[in-house]
């Protein structure tokens, strides 16, 4: 592994750069990636931001969103950019499987790979790394990369600040998770002073539901929420047919799992959704309960201790009953 500080000299002249982030990018994935994009273009680099899939419409207002290339929409063009890049920045993920088909293309590219990430147990595919599990968001690490490692805090203009604020806000649960340290608040204050309009960003992300998304939320809370007080666990499960019934699109299920966790006394919440080719699980927990351990052990996934995810090839009903069985294995930890 090479020292990340070496990039200061290497990036002093225009380079071909690709930025990518994880499948179904969330607020931190897009905020950190577009934040880095808006910084690097100011330095005269040729930058392409390629996502392995589409992402929620409530993120499409981010500055320079129109520059984003969605890989499945332009695979040939993307392959060429990846193969010919000097540097590939991998943001908010640390295992190439998280970018699906793009993973092998990135691995095989002659480009130097730069990982900026805050997830546990990074895979060893990168040349340069700026990684910390203590960061509340990858956007926080991008801020630190620009300010401390590159010494270019003055290039954090309104666009960069807006993107990084979005990443930190969404991944810290609007500044309420334990990872929201005093330092995070100092960073956020700096981003606001550099032009991030906090009230507007909150509105664009959180008060931007479609009518069907809100009705779907109501339907799930009334009909699909199962509470298991004996395991301090709550589950919401949704079938493909229900997603179709409410015209659910990418991003519409975001945040749903948090409602299950908000019930008094609940320590573990799961959202289990039947997607096109797989069943996707989103887990949230409080305190020391390791949600990521369940995802890693049973659902070929992982994540953070309190926010993790995975998937399964089994049928929805089977996954739900498997999950309930797993709860008994973890009973002692759950009822602590
Ligand atoms: P979400 O529930 O919002 O989809 O994901 C929460 C967190 O779980 C993400 O930040 C990511 O760390 C992790 N995660 C979600 N899905 C997967 C997955 O399929 N594999 C791995 N390794 N981690 C995941
Ligand atoms: Mn993140």
Regarding CATH, which class of the largest domain?
Alpha Beta
Fraction of residues in H or I helices: 40-55%
Structural class label: alpha/beta
Principal-axis shape equals globular
Distance between the termini: 41 Å
Provide a concise account of the structure shown.
With 336 residues, the protein is of the alpha/beta class.
Task: Tell me about this structure.
- It is a single chain.
- This protein is of the alpha/beta class.
- The protein folds into 2 domains: 4-206, inorganic pyrophosphatase (n-terminal core); 211-334, Diaminopimelate Epimerase, Chain A, domain 1 (Roll), CATH 3.10.310.30.
- It is 40% helix and 18% strand.
- The protein contains 14 helices and 12 strands.
- The protein has helices at 7-10, 27-42, 75-84, 102-108, 138-149, 158-171, 182-193, 198-206, 211-224, 240-245, 256-261, 291-298, 316-329, 331-334, and strands at residues 16-21, 46-51, 69-70, 87-91, 112-117, 128-131, 225-228, 233-238, 268-274, 279-285, 302-303, 307-312.
- The strands form 2 sheets. Strands 3-2-1-4-5-6 form a 6-stranded parallel beta sheet, with helices on both faces. Strands 7-8-9-10-12-11 form a 6-stranded mixed beta sheet.
- Helix 4 (102-108) links the parallel strand 4 (87-91) and strand 5.
- Helix 2 (27-42) packs parallel to helix 5, helix 2 runs antiparallel to helix 6 (158-171) and helix 6 runs antiparallel to helix 7 (182-193).
- The longest helix has 16 residues, at 27-42.
- The N and C termini lie far apart (41 Å).
- The mean pLDDT is 97.
- The structure holds guanosine-5'-monophosphate and manganese (II) ion.
- Manganese (II) ion binds at residues 28, 92, 118, 137-138, 171.
